[in-house]
Predict the structure.
Amino acid sequence: MSDSTAITPKDLEHVFYPKSVAVLGTNRVVGTVPHDIFANILKDNFQGIVYPVSPKERAVAGVRAYKYVLDIPDPVDLAILVFPSTVCHLALEQCGQKGVKSAVIISAGFREIGPAGIKREEEIKEIAKKYNISFIGPNCLGVINTDPLSRLNASFARKMPQEGSIAFLSQSGALCTAVLDYAQAKHIGFSKFVSFGNKASINEIDLIRYLKNDPKTKVILVYLEEITDGAGLMSIAREIISETGKPILILKSGRTREGAAAAASHTGSLAGSDEVCDAAFKQAGIIRCTTIEEMFNSAIALAYQPVPQGNRVAIITNAGGPGVLATDATVAQHLQLAKFSDETTEIYKKSLPATANIKNPVDVIGDARADRYKVALGSALADPGVDGVFVILTPQSMTDIENIAQEVCTTIGKYNKPGYASFMGEQDVAAGINILQQRSIPHYILPESMCKAYASALFFREHRDQTAELQTEFAGIDKQKAETVIQNALSAGRKYLPEEESDLVLKAFGLPMLPSDLARSKDEAVRMAEGIGFPVVMKIVSDDIVHKFDVKGVLVDIRSAQAAGEAYETILRNIATAKPGAKIKGILVQRMVTRGEEVILGVKRDPSFGVVIMFGLGGLFVEVFKDVSFRVAPVGPRAAGEMIREIRAYSMLAGARGKKPRDIRSVEECIQRLSMLALQLPEIKELDINPLIVSDEGGGCYVADARIML
Amino acid sequence: MDKSDIKSRVEKVTALVLKVDPKEITPTANFAFDLGADSMQSIELIAAYEEEFNISMDEQKAREVQTVEGAVEFIAGYLK
């Protein structure tokens, strides 16, 4: 993990806008990386000076070469290293002596190849530290800046992309070349294009931070294979989105569940790295993409068009079927079909044929030409009840595709509302699509992709406009008491808090506990049950027993003093059979809540993102359907509410099928208190409250069972 | 064969394979960094040394040799 705090946007200025560049290790063999990088810098009209550094060439591509970087008479702002990995340290050492402060290490053969490579990478990191050099790579494709002030193509990509407002950062170099090819075909331009490889010095957070104030960049795309500092990534994303309104889209590969299998709690086993990543991105307002295509679909929407102000969309189509498909996709993305104003409806009545459908989706009929699209599209965009427009075209014999494309571009350009297009087909519509793409109208082959892109843009707007949430600070917290319980357990060498100790910790942070007491004899159990009030639950308490149900150590629905006495003896007999020799502390007598919904709350510490809070419905919903939601702490009231609402079974809490709604506000408070607890007690590794029983609205909720792992 | 003999023959072969001025071939010269050997030329160098000295070297270990004096020592090990 790089020390990203040491790298500032100013350091990166030399990477993107160097006045002079030296390519160390270049040669004259066309078609090799060392040669082509130098040739690309020359060919793409770099605005500064470029020096080839080659041990044995007198010149490369007609430019006088230097044997060592130290031989260059002038200062060098940026060094590009293309030497074999075995000698990169020598080249970097000379860069340091020369006073070069920025480098791009293209060479492979470092961390990615195993122990020998790791050693080499450590060596170059040490040299960089000694000379205060920031570098991109190693093991990368290079850096491209399309800004006419620089025009630096320090990469071995086949072509310099066209200028645009999208920045693309990638951990994979090979993916970069594919993306450049894909983007070129769609007339997508880039502001900055960076392959950062092993990120041994400059990482994605440093680059994103630089792009915050890059006037050429409107949208930031990142391809990541591993997240080394999740909390840092969330922080910079929030900062950029709220302060500059630049969307960040991340394609994170490696959707694995490693690490989850070894977890001891429900939360631990459910909160795999990918689930946590999903939740964290959502919380930070980062648009997570699953494919390159999806990423660019959303990117062009955000880069080319205004951000939608709402979810009411109008669909303009020249065919019924695609209109229905688009309607289905609209609904599936939680968008609404806009209801047109009377004025718009009047215009449609007057201007469109009698057979046209003037309600949303507007069908302008198969013989529609540009003038009909103009009226339908312009009126929809002018309607205050419409937030955005989808234009669909199918190529029919009467369809004047190119003129319609021009009209769509012109009309959308007149309004400050987003307009996207889907010219369905391939060959016949190609010329029209080309016009749309060249005039920066987001185009999608399928209406479904168009709707998803709109939904992503809307997600971005909602998060951009939200204020940051802080941890709710509750009064009356007895942190010291909780710490004492934890320290006593740790001193005794225990990594697990039994229920009565877990209860003390939770109670100290104000979580609502059911009245309970620990009975050490049958008589005590009876007396306590009578004092608490029936019905009660009785549970074995022993450091040697973690899963109480498995050893029949829990009996429920005990409704009389006699039953309480019998239950005490039954539990002891069950333990003697199932777990002979277990050291028993006593039997917990606890009030039983008979009415309520069972939910689960949990805490896990993620190595990258930090404290993660989980919420879900109990029982089958969590065990089988894994219907849970996550947030990275601190969790404020808004995030707590979102966590509850986003599970699929939310209607069970909200009052489905005539049932009374449950006390959701009390659960929201519990989530926030749990977040506070987990942030203040770092010794807690995992925690489950299972179940938390939620009563009807106004009735509160109660922790019925809890487990804490240290 | 003594070390100075090995050294002069290593220098001769190196200059020939890498097409560099023999004056550039100092004992501490690094094949890649100072003499510009690329990965293909590194393999050619190993083959040329084997032919020159009529030995068969461990290629993996030979590739780890980075300097001219390192090559002299490495080859001397085979000629004992």
In short: Residues 36 and 74 of chain B are 20 Å apart (CA to CA).
